[in-house]
Amino acid sequence: RELTAEDQIALLKSSAIEIIMLRSNQSFSLEDMSWSCGGPDFKYCVNDVTKAGHTLELLEPLVKFQVGLKKLNLHEEEHVLLMAICLLSPDRPGVQDHARIEQLQDCLSEALQAYIRVNHPGGRLLYAKMIQKLADLRSLNEEHSKQYRSLSFQPEHSMQLTPLVLEVFGSEVS
Question: Which family does the entry's similarity section mention (predicted)?
Answer without folding.
Answer: Belongs to the nuclear hormone receptor family. NR1 subfamily.
